[in-house]
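Possible race condition, two jobs.
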Amino acid sequence: MPLTADVAAQQVQERLRALHRYIYDIEAERGRSEQCIDQILRAEKAVESSPSNDESSGSSQQQMQLKNLYKAGLTAAEQEERVIRLALSKIYEIRAIKNERRIQARHAGNKETIGCGALMKMLLSAAQTLPLHVGRAGERAPALCGAVPADSGHVARPGDAVAALVRVSDKEENWILAEVVSWLPAQGKYEVDDIDEEQKNRHVLSKRRVVPLPLMRADPRTDEQALFPKGAVVMALYPQTTCFYRAVVNRLPTSAADPYEVLFEDSSYADGYSPPERVAQRYVIAIKEGKGRST
């Protein structure tokens, strides 16, 4: 059933109230974690300053106490992580509700034309607020996190951002930033809208002409393998445009909020590449061989 404005607003408010409670819980759990860390540091200092006699009962007691403090600290950290993940789940649910309402408005024909400047700000915001993958110890980044490609059977959902290879003239094809309208299973094709609403173009494209954009950012400190390596040939969204072009990764992000630095192929420069440009993780994707050479 369509999600009405009143129902959507009620659902958002419910999740905001839950999020408000979780924020207070996070502060309380963080206080407990910090207290545990303080106790551990004091206990470690006491053990270091005690006589180095393994048979000393006092030393053994201190080491046992320190071991118990480590366990308590680990438990406190795990509880803090659990509450943070609960809070994040509410944020993601709010994003999903608002996205569903936006898609419904678009399908109902209530699509507001966005100017070029506002569109560029919207794309930047979408990249900066893309959820960050925060995995558990030993967990690998999932599909569509950073540079990790989609699974072979993946079908993008309505509202998902994609790169789409469309024909712009008899002799030219471009990779454009688009949004999925629907998947047509009988045809094995996507229906997508050009993200640039001034173009007002809708395309029906085969799956091989559509590349899903990342659904999560990768953190270089924990998921470096989910980033394109230096020197990789990629497709990247050229700044202040809605088109993807071939580029070479020149520098990797150093933090979760940091963009890539890429060099776009450009024959007008002596070395064949443009000066370095900064492009967010969301808009850097694997190149499809034989495609993407746009004029």
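Job #2 (started ~2 s after job #1):
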Amino acid sequence: MDKKLSLKELMTAYQRWVINNPSLVTDVETVATWSSYFIAGKINKSPIVSELVYALSKLLSLFNDKIINAAYGNNASQFSLQEQIKLWLTIVHYCEVFVELAVKYKCGTRGKWTAAIIIQMFKCSSALVLLYRFKDIPIQHPPIPALQRKKFTETVESEDNRDASFTLKRSGRVIRRVEGAPPISLRDWQPIKVEDNSIPSAIEIRDLKHAELIHIFKPIVHLGAMKLFGTKSWKQWLIALGLDVASFQLYKKHMNEITYEQRLEISRRKLSLVLYLLRSPMYNSYSKRVIENFLESTSNKIPAMSFICQPIIQYLNHWQDIYFYMWAM
């Protein structure tokens, strides 16, 4: 009983420390995450250990975000089915590379591919539930993003001000109530923020669903193409790229109608297209030579940069083989 009580007290003290020191907690998490990169190549089985450290640091950050959310009274929806699915998808997102490496070390390449298929089947089926039951379009990556802790308090305060304003019937202009105004010293004299609750049309919803459906099935299709054509074939590379482009084209039709958060996620996906340069066979045929020549010339011109460039050149092939899988993006 005493042991349980002491653990409970320790947990309470940790939660209080996280709530009172969010900036320090963020710094600790950042150091833990970056340490995973420095471990690579320094010790035996370094890829597995590095990914384990990375996964644990991200899971710790997720846990701390939950503590801060609960402290501000935003934990009511954390027990819903939608949030539980997002939570498990986020956990899998942080741990999938570690699981693949660990299974490959124990069971070989066949075991790694089996683990990759199981993980992607789970992610695909869970994403379909979010898409069709909860109309979650597009699904964020990861589904529960890291909490922007500095802006979190401001967001909570803006949500508390929803009842502090009213809308004029004829003009639609939003007016702040006198009792809802903050003290003069805290006013920023900016217009009150109002959420856009416009309802998309049926055609728009259909196109957005099709776009997200293509994105969800892309990893499964790509794994099948790799099995059929081989991991170094241009066909599997072009199939995956073609699916991404098709998804973006459907989203492009409705970029003006979707929310800022939705546009942000689509922009992140577009930026990830750059990673196709680091995936086989593009990497082996063209990108590798260009990147290595650039790093070597930079290291020669700026000697101080050799501290960064040389490790990248040394481990580039190793990182490309581990991290730049299309289904992990």
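The mean pLDDT is 82.
Logs attached separately.
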